[in-house]
Design goal:
Blueprint lengths: L2 H10 L3 H12 L7 H8 L3 H13 L3 E5 L3 E5 L4 H16 L1 H9 L5 H13 L5
Antiparallel strand pairs: 1-2
Helix pairs in contact: 1-5, 2-4, 3-4, 5-6
């Protein structure tokens, strides 16, 4: 795995689910996805999917459209990021354990994790 892929994972990816959501939308870049479709495809709760997709929007990897319903589209902020996502996807396909290990080796923002967990347990909608 290249240094640039490692750096990208460190800077932009906080979970395997977030990585898989990004790769799903990238593989279907011409499609706009609603929360229900993403949660069904990834077999996760809609609030969990929303949390990860919104993080990807904040990271400049996806955009959120507001036409009829809120939908997410793969739209990195520049072509260099698109190239890095492509390299990361290739690394995940060929060196899955190394990529997952890299994600789990990241320090956890415990305060953010506590807030998000509390919101999900309490039943509040997560942005």
């Amino acid at each position: 795995m290249s240094r640039e892929v490692k750096n990208f994972l460190n800077e932009h990816i906080n979970s395997v689910l977030q990585l898989e959501a990004l790769l799903l939308l990238r593989a279907n870049r011409d499609q706009a996805w609603d929360i229900e479709a993403v949660s069904k495809e990834l077999s996760v709760d809609t609030d969990v999917a929303r949390l990860h997709l919104n993080e990807l929007v904040r990271g400049g990897l996806l955009i959120l459209t507001k036409e009829d319903t809120m939908r997410y589209c793969y739209k990195p902020s520049n072509s260099q990021i698109d190239t890095l996502v492509s390299k990361m996807g290739a690394a995940y396909a060929t060196h899955r354990v190394a990529v997952i290990s890299r994600i789990f080796a990241k320090p956890v923002d415990r305060v953010r994790l506590f807030k998000e967990t509390f919101r999900l347990i309490k039943g509040d909608k997560v942005e």
